[in-house]
Each structure stands twice: as structure tokens, then as C-alpha cells.
Amino acid sequence: xxxxxxxxxxxxxxxxxxxxxxxxSLLTHTYANxxxxxxxxLAYEEIxxxxxxxxxxxxxxxxxxxxxxxxxxxxxxxxxxxxxxxPSSEWRMVAVDLRNHGKSAEIEGFDPPHDMVNAAxxxxxxxxxxxxGSPDVVIGHSMGGKVxxxxxxxxxxxxxxxxxxxxxxxWVLDSVPGEVSTENSDGxxxxxxxxxxxxxxxxxxxxxxVNHMLELGxxxxxxxxxxxxxxxxxxxxxxAFNLDGAVQMFHSYREMSYWPLLEHPPKGLEIAIVRAERxxxxxxxxxxxxxxxxxxxxxxxxxxTSVHVLPNSGHWVHxxxxxxxxxxxxxxxxxxxx
Length: 338
Fold this sequence. Notes:
Elements: E1 16-20, E2 44-48, E3 57-62, H1 73-82, E4 91-96, H2 116-129, E5 137-141, H3 143-156, E6 169-173, H4 188-198, E7 202-203, H5 206-215, H6 220-227, E8 230-233, E9 236-239, H7 243-255, H8 259-263, E10 270-276, H9 284-295, E11 304-310, H10 317-320, H11 322-334
Parallel strand pairs: 3-4, 3-5, 5-6, 6-10, 10-11
Antiparallel strand pairs: 1-2, 2-4, 7-9, 8-9
Helix pairs in contact: 1-11, 2-3, 5-6
């Protein structure tokens, strides 16, 4: 799951954020330019540091389970700003709401199965509907990391057509690339999803939900975060995500394995794995395997895999150590500008 965090750092006045959603739910914002978009493409937020400059590079940013694009708004702004000091380069950050999440949950046309393959296909459809061209970089956290891996795999197979090409860099943030066994999990996510499925579709109030979660034994921080995933529906509250669809996506996330992609990345692609130092999602065998893949010297006929450890961070990398994450990613992205 991805945490919903308020932007405590403020909004740099030089940054422009464009919100793109379904025609029936356009957002308004002090820094926003809005336009209509067709159904069956994902909702997203488009962020640039210098809106008057033509963009030269594009990065897609994907959230985790039960998250949304706004979870990554602050990081996206800071990343765009950190890359804006080059006179010849201008980055466009596109923070996406995956199917069943955020504003995309309000859009009709995302048919089942709700799995990693179709979640990645949604990205291909979005890119084909825009004039961006293919993204240079795709960054995915947790479940979004596996969507990113599936996107790269499908791009390599030519599944999205000639207009959607393989990215140059793929960032997988604290997401184990292989199958996720329940034996290697504390079961918290499963317990949360099971609990949410027992609740009515409309909730009396956010306070009621938080108290209910506390009574069931969940922590205060987790209970309050669950409460932030509500939206007003008349006098009551309802979920800001499609719970049944999100549960299906979680099962697909656990079952899919992308080890073959990491072992043989397509030529021209670097897959960068970021492991949070204090994350509980990695066992010793997986860490050793990743380090072995990263130490291999390519022959020029294939891409490469790199591994980065983010210090002083648990799973919520963009919250626990956003500065450290920004430094790791920025250094790599700047290599694409030379």
C-alpha cells in the first residue's frame, strides 16, 4: 500500500501541475491547467518545473496498492525541480492513478481482469492517446514497481505498437520482483483488505472508521491512513478506490514474477532496484540474487540491472527518506541528459 502524505514542503511557485481526469471530474487548482480526455485512459497529474519550455524528457510515476498520484506529488515536483537547472533539458513528470485507484476509479471502461498485465496495458493506452511520445523513465513503488516491470516486458514484446517504445530506465522502489509468498509477509496487507471487505460501501464518518480500525487492533497511524482514503458521498463517506478491483490487483502482484526480465533486460534498458534499508520485504536469498545480477558485466547485447540501497528508510521510501531517494534517482536521470 502507499501512504497518503500531505505536502509539508510547500509548492515551488515555478512549478506547474496539470491535472488530467475524466470529463465528469475535472479538478481545479491554483497551479492547474485542465483539459478534457477520452474515457478508458488513466487519470494523471502532469508536472513541469518550467511550463514555458518545451519538454525533452518524460517520466511516469506509479503509486502502490490503495495509493494514488497525489501520494507522489511532492516527490514529483522536487524531482522536476532538481532536473530543471539544465538549459537544454526540461522534464515532464506524469504521476498516474492506476486502474481502481484515485481518479481512475471514477472512470468507466477498465474491464477485468484487474491484474498487472492490464494495469500496464492502461499505461500503453494512455501514451498512445497523448502527444508525449514514449517515456524515457518509468518509476514504480511497491505494486507500481511490478506494473512498471510488466510495462517494460510488454514494450519489449511490442504489445503496445510502434509508438510506445521501451524506456531507457525503469525504477522499482522497494518491490520484490518475484512472487511474494505469504510466508515472507506479516500478513498486515491481507488483514487490512479483509477488514475493508467486511465494511459497508458507505461509512458514517472518517472518525467512525478510524475508531473501528483501532478497536480491531490496527495501529493508530495505519487506521488514520485508511481514513484518508475516504471521499464525501452526500452526508456519508465512501472509498476513493475500487476495493474489489484493488484486491484482484494485489493477488496478481503477489503471483507475478519478473526474474527472467531482470536476468536478461532488453538492450538499452537499465532496471534500477531500490531496496529500503529497513524494509521487511526482502529475504537474504533475494538480496544475494539481486547483487549477483547487478555485478554481471554485460556484453553490449542486453540491458543491465542495478541495485541501490536507500538508508534510513522503511517501505515508504518517498516519506521516510525523500531526500536520499531524490539524490539516487536524480543522479541516474541526469545521465540521460548528456
